[in-house]
């Protein structure tokens, strides 16, 4: 049973516009959420995170929003740039054993 | 400071062969994990370790063994390789608590 769900396998966004990537989770024991970015033939790199006690975290062009009641988080990228084209993974940490579980990823294409 | 180093980068095995994927980190991180990435499946946790001498199973542990004799090293052993184990394997490390993983660059394994 998937605990972290990214229901959109891919997303295309015009350069300069906002990219919104979504993630849902089922486990109430998750206390920390992360977004990773992955380019082909490279390992995932950490992008931004949010604690379960917050509802928003911002870092430059990247903002993560958390809605605990809906068990939903989203990553906003504004403005989108060509270098943002990559696969984005949503991940969640379970407090009990510090495991980090990943979603299936969303491939973001930034169109010129 | 090399971060997380994985060897080899590429490997082809015949069905039934065994091998060990090596992973080393020089950041004195307590936690280490192995993930596999398959198309459409995202990153799935194989095994993880919260410190030297302590390991536990992740989401897809069957067919793999791990041990953690030192803080730095976390090798992944394939006991009898199967075509279903064709994948890209990522090793990662982190400090304990609500923090993200630092990933290696991956090992691409093909089992024929």
How would you sum up this structure, described in words?
- Chain A is built from no helices and eleven strands.
- By secondary structure, chain A is mostly beta strands.
- In chain A, strand 6 and strand 7 form a beta hairpin.
- Chain A starts with a strand and ends with a strand.
- The model of chain A has no long low-confidence stretch (mean pLDDT 95).
- By secondary structure, chain B is mainly beta.
- Chain B contains no helices and eleven strands.
- In chain B, strand 4 and strand 5 form a beta hairpin.
- The mean pLDDT of chain B is 95.
- At the A-B interface, strand 4, strand 5, strand 9 and strand 10 of A face strand 4, strand 5 and strand 10 of B.
SSE blueprint:
The complex is a heterodimer of chains A (112) and B (112).
Chain A: E1 4-5, E2 10-14, E3 19-25, E4 30-38, E5 45-51, E6 56-59, E7 62-67, E8 72-77, E9 86-94, E10 100-102, E11 106-111
Parallel strand pairs in A: 2-11
Antiparallel strand pairs in A: 1-3, 3-8, 4-5, 4-9, 6-7, 7-8, 9-10, 9-11
Chain B: E1 4-7, E2 10-13, E3 19-25, E4 31-38, E5 42-51, E6 54-57, E7 64-66, E8 76-78, E9 87-94, E10 102-103, E11 107-111
Parallel strand pairs in B: 2-11
Antiparallel strand pairs in B: 1-3, 3-8, 4-5, 4-9, 5-6, 7-8, 9-10, 9-11
Q: Between the first and last Cα atoms of chain A, what is the distance in angstroms?
A: 38 Å
Major beta-sheet overview of chain B: 7 strands, mixed
Low-pLDDT sequence parts of chain B: none
Low-confidence stretches of chain A: none
Largest sheet of chain A: 6 strands, mixed
Tally of helical segments of chain B: 0
Order of helices and strands of chain A: EEEEEEEEEEE
Tally of individual helices of chain A: 0
Give the percentage of residues in beta strands of chain A: over 45%
What are the key terms here?
heterodimer; A: 112 residues; mainly beta; 5-stranded antiparallel β-sheet; B: 112 residues; 7-stranded mixed β-sheet; 4-stranded antiparallel β-sheet; 52% strand
